[in-house]
Amino acid sequence: MPDLLLELRSEEIPARMQRRAAEDLRQRVTDALVERGFLYEGARAFSTPRRLALHIAGLPARGEAVREERRGPRVGAPEAAVQGFLKGAGLTSLDQAKTITDPKKGEFYLAVIERPGRETLDVLAEILPEILKSFPWPKSMRWGAASAEPGALRWVRPLQSIVATFGPETETPEVVPFAVGGIAAGTVTYGHRFLAPEAIEVRRFDDYIQALERAKVILDPERRKDVILHDARDLAFAQNLDLVEDEGLLEEVAGLVEWPVVLMGSFDASFLDIPAEAIRATIRANQKCFVLRKSGSEDLAPAFILVSNLLASDGGLAITAGNERVVRARLSDAKFFWDTDRAVALDDRLPKLDSIVFHEKLGTQGERIARIAALATELAPRVGADPDLAERAARLAKADLVTEMVGEFPELQGLMGRKYAALQGEHPSVCAALEEHYKPVGPSDRVPTDPVSIAVALADKLDTLVGFWAIDEKPTGSKDPFALRRAALGVIRLILDRELRLCIQDVSANQVKYVQYLTDAPGMYDEVVLSPGHKQRSVKGSVCEQISASLLAFFADRLKVYLRDQGARHDLIDAVFALPGQDDLLMVVRRVEALGAFLDTEDGKNLLAGYKRAANILRIEEKKDGRAYDAEPDAALAAAGEPAERALAEALAKARETASAAVAREDFSGAMQALSTLRAPVDAFFQDVTVNAPDPKLRENRLFLLNALRAATREVAEFAKIEG
Q: With left for phi above 0 and alpha for psi between -120 and 50, is residue 34 left, alpha or beta?
């Protein structure tokens, strides 16, 4: 079967864009082929700092003929619908369409579309230029004289050559005949910019890979990563050192080189007085180098690993020396920042936060800290933390933002706060909270265990959410500029991992009060009383309720996403949240778990089926009668009825009472067990009893009985939300 080889070589492709670009190329080309009926055996895309490559194996030499029947609008439909149908089907008039008759819906137009098989080479020549012209680079440019022309090609950096060949392994493949941006596809590429800049003739993918290797280019980024990692480990081992591995840096460095050459440099041991994290950030951020540890120790060594893109004639001595000079200068700066920061207490830095705007509608960082401190103090007893320590930690939580070290390396925020707090003798829990209150940052980040850290972390995230909800800056679609989804997930993980009892609506409603004089939403306040220096206003209770209810709905949505990733069913979460007052996320999850376990049993499945049947009967009869059958059934009337009717009434009364008591003591498994006793009497009722009895009173009471079943299940969840 023929293969496609495609290479797009440009001046440069930034490392951060390479993976996505390779995947976009693979997906867009294969999607376009499949859409036209061309299937394939496999496709792989590759990237280097100067090229994207795609190999598609097992394409047919020619596509098969396609016959498709496309149903159109009803005969007599509006002209716009008819014209849309004709355009979509590739017809010029209704004379080219057929008319078919649907016994229920009348006559419809039908288009029979027949496409003859096409040569794959022709199809590739058609789709590849369009894909390249519309390629979704995050940033792109035009260049040269052609850049002024309409529709000029845009690429991440100037495109220099295109290789595009198609054909079987046993024959000489053909060049795919197309050109973009004045560059025609061919069979010539080039190797390493400095080590092998000569032209290379390539035809097939296997030849292409080997030719690039000879020309000092490793095409596969995973292979480049493997070379870097193993050579770095070996070089470190030879010096009795351990590599501090860093997957993110490894990915980035592999995107900076086509022929990785691993070298080791060193720096003065006196710089080891700087915190290890600062050394690592300095060497990583500025030089893209790896740090090393002393073998079997957590202590850093005065050495680092660098990755060059050159095989130097001096063995890399000059390259290493140049990197050492830069590292020395950077570490000198870091040491100056460290020494300068230690001379100023964190408390003395707090006034600077009053002049830093957090958000124009939410005030300064200083005002935000006051809100976080108040909320952390309130939350402390609920999470087992000392309120005074929580308040102190919250006051100092953002102080390191105005230090020299964090100003230079923002990724060290929190961590440097912890170190500076320890230096000035703060309580260990306060020190820990300064670093950990940002956590968890993502789904794989660890959750704090110290109660003070938990109190401040919750306060920080909840204040952010409540504040932006109060000023109506909520996430929309894929846009979330203030990372509010991440903040909500952080709260959810803190609550669930630490099994915290926290009512989201109560906390958020109370926190609105702390942002009251920072927002000016119309109709938000009951009164305005000015006092010297600031405003005192009373937020309307209805406004607090609206904000907290909206925020709870957001938490419910985030919880669904989180639990779905854990394997839970979204409909069960909806069923629990549909009950009033469900803002204790830990209890919501426990209800969902118990409900899921119950519905996996035969009793649970059958009871759900019985509930659905009862709900459908009630819906139909309530609509027909124009009334709701939501009263309690007459026990005496039920007792005088059919045996199955009497048995269901008795079972419902007992099950509802038992389930309610179990829910009250938060025994959700017990509540489900109580509901499971309803399976047999419900089955018997539907088998032996006619709901729509001739006697109006009897019929009404039996509908009340079905409503009692609906009410009994609502003790644990809204079964109407459950699928199946």
A: alpha
The reported pTM is 0.77
Alpha-carbon gap, residue 69 to 540, rounded angstroms: 61
Sequence-ordered list of residues with C-beta below 8 angstroms from that of 600, at least 6 positions apart, any chain: none
Residue 713, token pair as written in the block:
């299940």
Burial 392-407 (b: 16+ CB within 10 A, else e): bbbbbbbbbbbbbbbe
Q: Is the pLDDT of residue 516 over 60?
A: no
User: Which DSSP helix (H) or strand (E) runs through 577?
Assistant: helix 570-577
* H or E segment to which residue 593 belongs: helix 585-599
Burial category of 680 from C-beta neighbours within 10 Å (exposed 0-12, middle 13-18, buried 19 and up): middle
**In 626-678, which ranges are continuous DSSP H helix?**
635-639, 643-664, 668-676
From residue 107, alpha-carbon distances to 37, 68, 103, 517 in Å are 30, 19, 8, 66
Which residue's structure tokens are 């001046």?
Answer: 11
The helix/strand/coil state of 307 is strand
Whether residue 21 contacts residue 137, with contact meaning beta carbons closer than 8 Å, is answered with yes
Q: Which residue has the tokens 């098989």?
A: 117
Query: 100 or 10, which is more confident?
Result: 10
Please, are residues 331 and 282 in contact by the beta-carbon 8 Å criterion? yes
- Compute the half-sphere exposure of residue 193: CA atoms within 13 Å on the CB side of its CA: 14
The residue with tokens 């989804």 is: 485
- Helical residues (DSSP H) of 204-343, grouped into ranges: 205-214, 221-238, 247-254, 276-287, 317-342
* CATH class for the region spanning 595-721: mainly alpha
**Token pair recorded at residue 512:** 């609105």
Mean pLDDT, residues 1-15 taken together: 95
**CA–CA gap between residue 535 and residue 518 (Å, rounded):** 9
Identify whether 451 is preceded by a cis peptide bond (ω within 30 of 0).
no
pLDDT tens-place string over residues 163-189: 999 998 788 899 999 999 999 999 999
Angle (nearest 5°) at CA 242 between 236 and 245: 100
DSSP string, 399-465: GGGGSHHHHH-GGGTTHHHHHHHHHTT--HHHHHHHHHTT---STTSPPP-SHHHHHHHHHHHHHHH
Q: Which of 64-68, 141-145, 338-342, 546-550 has the highest mean pLDDT?
A: 338-342
* Band of residue 539 on the pLDDT scale cut at 50, 70, 90: low
Domain boundaries, the chain: 3-62+119-214, 66-115, 221-342, 358-393+424-567, 595-721
The whole-number pLDDT of residue 105 equals 75
CA nearest neighbour of 189 among 228, 162, 220, 158: 162
- Residues 417-473 have pLDDT tens digits of 999 999 999 999 999 999 999 999 888 899 999 999 999 999 999 999 999 998 889
Cβ burial of 252 (10 Å; 0-12, 13-18, 19+) is: middle
Q: Nearest 5 degrees, angle CA 512-CA 515-CA 517?
A: 125
- Cβ atoms of 54 and 29 within 8 Å: the answer is yes
**pLDDT band at residue 530 using 50, 70 and 90 as cut-offs:** very low
**290/286 Cα distance (integer angstroms):** 11
Rounded to whole angstroms, what are the CA distances from 203 to 3, 174, 464? 10, 8, 57
Higher per-residue pLDDT: 289 or 95: 289
Tokens of 365: 């960082």
The closest of 605, 610, 568, 594 to 715, measured between CA atoms, is 594
